[in-house]
Fold this protein.
Amino acid sequence: MPVNSIWEGSGNIMCLDVMRAWGRLPVVQEALEREFGEVKGQNRHFDLQWRRLSQLMRKPHEEQGRAVTSTLFNLFVAAQLLRYSSPPLAEAWCQMTLDARGERILPDRLCDMLFARAMGG
């Protein structure tokens, strides 16, 4: 589901806006390359999804809008985690969210770290 969608119509409009802006304005690709270039090489799942999305947007189709918008959102989240969170947390999030295989199990060590952090430790 697109970020911040309230009902089906607004989600579709947001997705179309993303697709149109990216397809018509070269500065969008340039801005994304600058933004994501700062974390490029830190995580293989991030790099692979960014490469795939960039290739997909060379010949975009409107029906791909939801997938493009969701992937773009996830890449922004991943970039922030790679910049500002602990490496194990960023790695786990990228693997769980960006890995095409869809693995959704956190390693025990990371779970322990997250619980300790949540408990103030």
Remarks:
- Residues 8-118 form one domain.
- The two ends are 34 Å apart (CA to CA).
- DSSP finds six helices and no strands in the chain.
- The chain has a mean pLDDT of 85.
